[in-house]
Design goal:
- The protein is mostly helical and about 475 residues long.
- The protein has one domain: Amino acid/polyamine transporter I, CATH 1.20.1740.10.
- About 70% of the residues lie in helices and about 0% in strands.
- The longest helix is centred in the middle third of the chain and has 37 residues.
- It is globular.
Length: about 475
């Protein structure tokens, strides 16, 4: 690469921890307790699902720490999979990030950010007469169009901010993270001490209406919880902009995840202490309401609802911002190797992959129009867990292919912890196919659409190299 297209290493541990937290703490911490309650019908089992999802996420992070400590580069798993597996698998991963995993995550978080802003401003609904218009009976682009339009504006605005220096974007993320953590601590403190709150109620394993908690129900509830934990590995995408990434990234992920798991358990215990499990089941059935808003409304009234709506807006704005900041980097890395559209591999004057950010923003805006919040999140989680499993398996492969390489960090509990993680990912995917077939199939179709694109790009790349050689030009890096 020329210096024109080299990224600048400017981010230290403080920024890394803030980006990890901002990338993860978004809409799920406020919304997902309702679908989990509807599936498990027990406060205690909801908390168990949160704990299990946190442990599995931690197992994945411990495995990831060894890989990123060994191979830290811009592009995250895209760069790692190329060395662990091959260019084809690496491309399919990057293509999946673009078509469904990362862009659907950006869309869904921006959607909740827009919902919370709309709760505050109470804006008029647009195109209500077209709300029932459908594409294939699956997509309703004009349903709740006001919220979708605001979400698109949020994505565009944050994309433009992130076309400036990476430190500008990271600095905004730091400020938003501090506001979010402060707001959540306030809710936990006042919620647990509110009239009628009961910790014993949140820990009860009693189920409503005699429901039985099945393994499949736990896995399905964890699908919702995993959305709340999604994004912990995004920091790997900007490895080329982190100082001493082989050490700083693993430490940052460990610190960030520890803070996140603690916060999630405390805030969900607060929700389930304030309101009975039946209230969350009703919220999920009725739809259109955010669980956290109703909890705070119950002990602070209208002003409380406005406070939590503003907090959700700040949280999801910060998370959308962090996702946009980090998620464009794999497309930049792909383009530099001839595996994405060539102009995506250029940097602007601020040494930021502006074109990658723009194409990501455009597709994320399209996905906002395509579906609802839960549909987008389920598609995203199904897609990404295929590659989470591949990540865990990569620890075993690298131990065999690079046995003597210097490893700043080694996967804790090897080989048991990585093996448990890989097996869980496989079971989780099977269960999702069974319980959420529509979202799983849509996600698979978008992922597999990359196969013809790969062979087209490969053919184009080979032809370009041959032409360069004919004219005495050097081959691409």
């Amino acid at each position: 690469m020329t210096s024109k297209n080299n990224l600048v290493r400017s981010l230290g541990l403080r920024y890394v921890v803030a980006i990890v937290i901002a990338s993860v703490v978004g809409s799920g911490v406020y919304k997902k307790v309702a679908p989990m309650a509807d599936g498990l019908h027990s406060s205690g089992w909801v908390l168990i699902a949160w704990v299990l999802a946190g442990l599995i996420t931690l197992f994945g992070a411990l495995s990831y720490a060894e890989i990123t400590g060994l191979l830290a580069e811009t592009g995250g798993e895209y760069a790692y999979f190329k060395k662990i597996y091959n260019r084809f698998f690496s491309f399919i991963y990057g293509w999946s990030l673009f078509t469904v995993a990362n862009t659907a995550a950006i869309s869904s978080i921006a959607y909740v950010c827009s919902e919370s802003l709309n709760n505050i401003l109470n804006l008029p609904q647009l195109f209500t007469s077209l709300a029932t218009f459908t594409i294939g009976g699956v997509f309703y682009p004009f349903d709740n169009f006001t919220v979708k339009l605001i979400a698109i504006f949020i994505i565009i605005g944050l994309t433009m901010i992130n076309t400036r220096t990476v430190k500008t974007g990271a600095g905004l993320g730091n400020a938003l993270v501090l506001l979010v953590l402060f707001g959540i601590i306030i809710i936990i403190g006042f919620g647990l001490n509110s009239e009628g709150a009961s910790i014993s109620r949140s820990l009860s394993l009693h189920t409503t209406n005699g429901y039985s908690v099945t393994t499949s129900a736990i896995f399905t509830a964890m699908l919702a919880a995993f959305w709340a934990y999604q994004g912990w590995n995004n920091i790997g995408y900007i490895g080329g902009e982190v100082k001493n990434p082989h050490k700083v990234i693993p430490i940052g992920i460990a610190i960030g995840l520890g803070i996140i798991i603690t916060i999630y358990l405390l805030i969900n215990a607060t929700y389930l202490s304030v309101l009975p499990i039946e209230s969350f089941e009703t919220l999920h059935t009725d739809g259109g309401k955010i669980a956290a808003v109703e909890v705070v409304r119950s002990f602070w009234g209208y002003n409380g609802a406005m406070f939590i709506s503003f907090l959700i807006f700040i949280t999801t704005l910060g998370c959308t911002h962090a996702q946009i900041l980090t998620c464009a980097r794999p497309y930049y890395a792909m383009a530099r190797e001839g595996l994405f559209f060539a102009k995506i591999g250029n940097l602007n004057k601020s040494k930021v992959p502006q074109n990658a950010l723009l194409i990501q923003g455009i597709w994320a805006a399209v996905l906002v129009l395509s579906g609802s919040f839960d549909q987008l999140t389920d598609m995203s989680i199904f897609a990404i867990f295929i590659f989470y499993g591949a990540n865990g398996l990569g620890v075993f492969i690298l131990r065999r292919t690079m046995p003597d390489a210097k490893r700043p960090y080694k996967a804790w509990g090897y080989p048991i912890i990585p093996a448990i993680y890989v097996i869980f990912c496989a079971l989780f995917l099977v269960n999702t196919l069974y319980t959420r077939p529509r979202e799983a199939v849509i996600g698979m179709v978008l992922m597999l659409s990359g196969i013809p694109v790969y062979f087209w790009l490969q053919k184009k790349y080979v032809q370009t190299d041959e032409q360069n050689q004919d004219f005495g030009m050097p081959e691409k890096d």
